[in-house]
Design a protein that fits this description.
five-stranded antiparallel beta sheet, alpha+beta, Beta-lactamase
């Protein structure tokens, strides 16, 4: 049997199409399968290694780094805020970024916290006892020591080589231009969650655009929560914030801020503002108030109301600077013209109230041009009566009063003209000369821009361009928001306002060689209890534009509660004249008329005749 079996086996046939079940056949098959797998696996490994070492090198480098360093790498760079200088055409930053450091400690890695605290205290200016408390928290993996530290401080600590102390490079806001309106720029501070965010002004209004988009990290973790370097990890790169270029001219802004500060101090006033607009476009050339604050030291501000920009936020009763809108409405509605006359008795009795002219005088027969020259309250009441209450209210609203202008700044006030809807004639009468209603400075200067710009009201704007990190540029297009008066009315009211500067109370706002159009306004301030007006508190304003027939700028100067003078012709008007003279020269506007020569000084006295003695 055994022999027979061996013989059969020795002659065993291999039938074609059946599997080879011999030992050697199985081994060969396994070798072939492994070979195929290796052939497929090796390129995949090569590709993955290349991905790890080249394409995702930053991802895994970050994953292998310290947690705080990783967070810093995922933060975007905040966009800058620029202004342009007409003289050289260059951009200058009002807000940019500087290098800063966050200093932190890992208490669990510090063997001698008292010694470390003692070394740190003198450098970071934090009491030893406070640092000891932070550094002795058992098992604490992270403890903040100091934010916004300078490179000099970090270098001093590094020289000490202190255990458990680490550093993260961050960025902080830098405001290189001093005294050029913190209220316009705003600042960057901590929000309710402890994160840095823009507040007020451009920083606050455009925070999302300036801040950019933070990056993100997605990484697999093991059961204990540790990141797996070989896992499926990915970093989403941060997107930097966009840069913003303002319409503000750097030189004009500096001049305006310097001059308004000097005027407030000269008149011992509570505060003051200047805003300058380009009538044909609505672009803001300067916007400055005093007192102001330094965005780099916003924490030192004691009265938070100073953070608001009064030019766009604070509404006030404008007084006589409002009168040109009343007369423009009368001319536009064909109810009056510059030569229309009325009899000024010095007062008007309306609804049991007696309204008088500011000078208390009766001027007799007066033209509408003289109404503005002498700033007669009775004259604007006359015009308002010709219009009627409803039509007068329509014109007031058409000039943009009572609603926000749309400028890209917040918080923004709308003013209040609701008194015009009340019953009784007294409310429209007082509104005709600028009392009983409120406006913001930005509304007022935009309205004067319409008087200068053939009656076209432009939306004021302060952002000229947005420069995105991908290289694209978004430019602001001027926007016409209405035409409250016709071009003919604009020409006539401009001529009347020139007469105010030439013949009326606005002489000190004039500029030799140019036709300047403008109007004074000395407004009373309502009592806080709402009953009448303060006795010795006034607001002096001067609003106007030049040259009158082709205005390159419209400007409002406002001085609150000057204590050395009473009338705007002695406070706001002179500053308007100084700024207008500067602007016309800076903008290189050709003179329109011959400059009158100054009168020759009297000859010196004859020594013999005056003293009787020869010299």
């Amino acid at each position: 049997m055994p022999r027979f079996f061996s013989q059969q086996v020795g002659r065993q046939r291999v039938v074609k199409g059946l599997p080879d079940l011999s030992a050697s056949g199985m081994i060969n098959k396994r070798v072939r399968v492994l070979s195929i797998l290796l052939i497929l696996l090796v390129p995949a490994l090569v590709v993955r290694l290349a991905q790890l070492q080249i394409f995702e090198h930053s991802t895994y480098e970050a994953l292998a780094s310290d947690q705080h360093d990783l967070e810093a790498k995922l933060l975007p760079s905040r966009g800058r805020i620029f202004v342009r200088d007409r003289a050289d055409g260059k951009l200058y930053p009002l807000a940019s970024n500087r290098e800063a450091w966050t200093i932190y400690a890992v208490p669990k890695n510090i063997e001698d916290p008292i010694a470390v605290a003692h070394e740190l205290a003198g450098i970071v200016n934090i009491p030893d006892v406070d640092l000891i408390t932070r550094l002795t928290k058992e098992g604490d993996p992270y403890e903040l020591v100091l934010k916004d530290a300078s490179t000099e401080i970090v270098d001093q600590i590094k020289e000490k080589d202190l255990e458990g102390i680490g550093f993260v490079r961050t960025s902080a806001r830098l405001y290189p231009e001093k005294d050029v309106s913190g209220q316009l720029i705003g600042f960057v501070g901590e929000d309710e969650s402890g994160n840095m965010a823009g507040k007020y002004g451009i920083e606050g209004g455009f925070n999302e655009l300036l801040a950019g988009v933070a990056g993100s990290l997605v990484a697999e973790k093991d059961a204990s929560g540790r990141r797996l370097i070989i896992g499926d990890s990915q970093i989403q790169n941060a997107v930097d914030g966009a840069d913003i270029v303002l319409t503000i001219d750097r030189t004009i802004q500096y001049e305006a801020c310097t001059k308004i500060k000097a005027a407030v101090e000269q008149h011992n006033a509570d505060n003051g503002s200047i805003v300058i607009i380009e009538p044909k476009t609505g672009a803001i050339l300067a916007m400055c108030s005093y007192p102001d604050f330094d965005p780099a030291e916003y924490g030192k501000v004691q009265d938070i109301s100073i953070l608001n920009n009064p030019i766009v936020f604070t509404a006030y009763e404008p007084g006589s600077v409002f009168k040109p809108f009343t007369l423009a409405a009368g001319i536009d509605a064909k109810k009056i013209d510059p030569s229309t006359t009325y009899e000024d008795k010095g007062f008007e009795e309306i609804d049991d109230y007696t309204i008088r002219n500011s000078d208390g005088k009766a001027h007799g027969i007066q033209t509408m041009t003289q109404v503005l020259d002498e700033s007669l309250n009775t004259g604007t009441i006359f015009v308002q009566r010709q219009l009627g209450k409803a039509l007068f209210e329509e014109y007031v609203q058409a000039f943009g009063f009572g609603k926000k202008t749309g400028i890209e700044l917040s918080p923004q006030g709308a003013g209040n003209v609701s008194s015009l809807a009340k019953k009784g004639s007294i409310f429209a009468a007082t509104a005709s000369y600028g009392q009983g209603l409120t406006v913001t400075p930005i509304q007022l200067v935009a309205g004067y821009g319409a008087l200068a710009n053939s009656g076209k009201l432009m939306r004021p704007y302060v952002v000229a361009e947005i420069l995105y990190p991908d290289g694209s540029v978004e430019k602001t297009k001027p926007q016409e928001v209405g035409q409250p008066i016709e071009a003919r009315t604009s020409r006539l009211i401009s001529g009347m306002l020139v007469s105010v500067v030439e013949n009326g109370h606005g002489k000190r706002a004039g500029v030799p060689g140019y036709w300047v159009a403008g109007k004074t306004g000395t407004a009373q301030v309502p009592r806080k209890d709402g009953r009448g007006y303060e006795e010795d508190d006034t607001i002096g304003s001067f609003a106007g534009y030049a040259p009158s027939e082709d205005a390159k700028f419209a400007m409002l100067v406002k001085i609150d509660h000057p204590r050395d003078v009473q009338w705007a012709e002695s406070s706001a008007a002179p500053l308007f004249g100084v700024m207008a003279n500067f602007l016309l020269n800076y903008l290189e506007v050709p003179t329109e008329r011959q400059v009158k020569a100054a009168p020759a000084p009297p000859p010196p006295p004859d020594p013999v005749a005056s003293t009787g003695t020869a010299i």
